[in-house]
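the three lines:
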Amino acid sequence: MQAVDAKALPALQTVELSSFHKRLRIWGEKIIEALILICGLSAIILVLGIFIFVFKEAWPFLLSRFSWREFLTSPEWYPDSATKVRYGALALFAGTASITIGSMVVALPVGLGTAIYISEFCSPRFKEIAKIVIEILAAIPSVVWGFVAIMILNPLIIKLFDVPIGLNILNASVILALMAIPVIVSIGEDALRAVPDAYREAAEALGATRLETTFRVVVPAAKNGLFAALLLGMGRAIGETMAVLMATGHSIHMPTSVFDSVRTLTATIAAELGEAPKGGEHYQALFTIGLFLFAISFIVNLTADFMVRGFRRKI
Amino acid sequence: MFGLTTHLQNKRRKERRVSFLLGCLTLCLVLPIAFIVGVLLFKGLPAICWEFLAADPIRGMTAGGIFPAIIGTIYLVLLSLLFCVPIGVIAAVYLSEYAADNWFTRAINLAIVNLAGVPSIVHALFGLGAFVLFLKFGTSLLAASATLAVMNLPVVITATRESLEAVPRQFREACWNLGATRWQAIRYVVLPNSLPGILTGVIFAVSRAAGETAPILFTGAVFYKAELPQSILDQCMALSMHLFTLSTQVVGVPEAFPYGTALVLVGIVFAVNTLSIALRFYFRTHRKW
Amino acid sequence: MENQTKKIEISDLTARYATQVVLKNITMDIYKKEIFAIIGPASAGKSTLLKCINRMSDFIRNISVSGSIKLDGQDTRSEDGSSLRRRVGMVSPLPVGLPMTVWDNVAFAPRMAGVRDKRKLNEIVEDCLRNAALWDEVKDRLGTLATRLSGGQQQRLTIARSLSLRPEVLCLDEFSIAIDPVTTMRIEEVLERLKVNMTIILVTNIVQQARRLAERTAMMLDGQLIEVGYTSELFYGGAKDPRTKEYIEGRFG
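prediction for all of em together
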C-alpha cells in the first residue's frame, strides 16, 4: 500500500470574499433568477398575446356584423360582394373538416401501424433508420408539399381518375396525410414506449405471442397516448395553411365528393388577407376566422395534453 | 400434442404476416420521400447553375435567378434565431432548474404545448397585429423574423429542456455541495454538458424557420424586390415565398424554375437536418459520462 | 478530550417530507476537531441530518425543517446557503466526478468562490489531491476527464474536491459504500490526519468504521436520536439504550 503523504493540510485559510463581493454575488444571483423567471413566462405571455392581438382585430366585427347563425350555418362567403356582403363560413368549415377527415383516413392506419411496428416489432437498427426517415418527412416545408400537390399529384389525379381538376379534397388529403404521419408516429411511439416492459414480460410469461402481447396488452395500455397522437395529427391537418392553400383548388362550396375542390379556414385567411383593406370589415372577419382556429387548436392541444398526462399518471 | 404444435405454428405464421404488413406500411413512408426528392432532382437540377443561384430574378420572375430569395431566407433565419434562442434556452433553464412542481409550472407547460400547436396562419395574424401594427415595425425583416421566432420558441424550449434534464442530478448536487450557487452550477456544469442537445434543437429550429411561408406572408416577405434588404426594417424576399409565387401566381415561368427553387429550399432544409442528425450521433458517442 | 468547544449545536431539529417525519426533535452538539460518527440502520434519517447541516435541504422539494442548527454559535440560516456550504463540505455516498478534467474538478469550488490566480489554484489542486491520497495516481493525467477514473479514485477525488475550500466541517455520507476495502482504509487514514484541522462528521452503516475512527458516536433510529456517547464507552459495554447495544453487536439493522 502506498504510504500516505506526510504533508499535512496547512492551517485553515478559508477563501474569504469581502462582504461587498459577497453581497454583489448574492444580488447578481437574484437578478439572474428574475431574468430567468421572465423568460420562463414567455410562453404564457405569447399565448395570451396571440389571443389578445387576434381578438383585438376581430372585436369590432364581432360586435357589429357577426352573427353566429350566419357564420356557422350559411355557406355563402362573399366578403367583397358589391351588392350584398355575406360572411357565411360553413363552406370553409366543411372544407377544413373534409380534408381533415380525408387525411386522417390515410394517416391514421399508416401512422399508428408505423408507430406500432417501430416500437414493438422491428430491430433497433431499423428503428434508428425509420426515425430518421420520419424526421426528414417532418422537415419538408409545407410550401414544398403544396408545390408537390400542384406539380406532381395534380396531373397524376387527373390521369388516374379522369377528372377535370386534380386540386381537390383527395389531393389535399394525401398531402396532409403525409404531413400528419410524422406527428402521429412520433407521439404514438412515445406512448407505446411509455408502457412499462413489465407488462410485456408478464404477457409473454403467460405464453402470449408478440402479436397478442402487442394488440391485447400494449396497445390497450397506450390507448390514451395513441388517441392524443391522433388528435395532434388532426391539429396539424386543421392548422396547415400553405399546402392546403395550394392543393385544395380554391373554390368555396360545400363538398359532395372527394374530387371536389374546396377551401379551408386557414387558406381563406392566407388568400384574402393581402387584399383586404386594413381595419375594414373583411379584414376583421378574417381575424375572426383566426380566432376560431386559435380556439380549435387550443381545445385540441389541451385535450391531447390531458390524455397524455392522464395516461402517464395511471401507469 | 400435435394439435398444439400446429396451433403454435399458425400463431407464429400470423405474427410474421402482421409484422411484415406493418413493415410494409413503414416502408411506405420512404417511397414518397424518395419519389419527391427524385422528381425534384430530375427536374430541378438542370435549372441549378451559378446564374440561378447568384442572379436577381428578371422579366417578371420568368428569368434570372433566386439570389435575393436565398439571402432573404438566411437573414430571416438568423434574425429569428437571435430572438428565440436566448429566450427559449433561458425559459428551458427556468423550467428544468428552478420551477417548482405546482400549478404555475403546469400552466407554463400547457402554454408551450399550445404555442406549438397554434396554426401557422394564426401566428401570421399575431405577427401582423403585434409586430407590424402595434409595435410599428411595419412589414419588415424584423417583424417577419419576430413572428418566426414566436413560432419556433416551443421547439427551442422543448429541445433545450430535454437536454438539460438529461444531465444527471448528482452533478448539480455535487456543485451545490461545493458551495456553488444554483446559477453557477447551471452556468459551469449543466449548460456546457447539455450544449449538444441545445444545438440540435436550434438547428431544427433553423430548418423550420427556413421552410415556413405562412407566418412571413403578411409580416415582411414580398413577392419581388430587386435589391437586398438594407436594414432590418426593409422587406425582403424568401425562398419559400418565392416558390409559392412561382408555382401559383406567375404565368409563363419555365418549368425548371420552380423545380430549381424547390430543390434549393429542400436542399437547405435537408442539409441542416442532416447536420443535426450527424451532430447527435457524434455527441452520443462522445459523451463525457 | 474533556472541555472541548462546541462547533455545531443542533437543537430540536425536526424534518418532514410532505407528512412523513424523518427527523424527530434531534438535539446534540458536535465538538471542534473531532471525528463524530453517526450510526444506525438504513432510513434512520442520517443522510437527511447531514443535508440539514449544510442546508442541502434547501434543494429538496416538499421538505420542511424546524428547529435550529448553529455553527460556531451562529444560526446557519443567518447566512447565504452557498456561503455556508463553502464552510461545511460534503462527500456523497456515490462518487461523482464532474464531467470535466481532474484539475478542473478540484479547482471548481475555489473558482466559484472567486479565486482567479492560476498559481494559487495549482497549489490548492496539488495539496488537496495529496491530502486525499490521490496525487501519485493522477499527477500525470490531471487533464483527463474525471468521469474516466475508477470508482475508488473518483471517491477520493470527491474528497479532494471537498477539501479545496478548506472547510471547517467535513461531512461524509457512507463514503465507503462504492469502494474497495483497501481504498477505504486509505481514506480512513486521510481522515485521521485531517481532523487535526477540521471537524469531521461521519455517517456510516459500518459499525466497525465508527469504532476505528470516531471519538464520539451517535446512534439514530427511525428519525430519532437514541443516544450519543464516547465511542470508547459506547462500544465497550457502556451503551445505555438496549437498542444501541443490539445494533452495535450486529443483532439488527
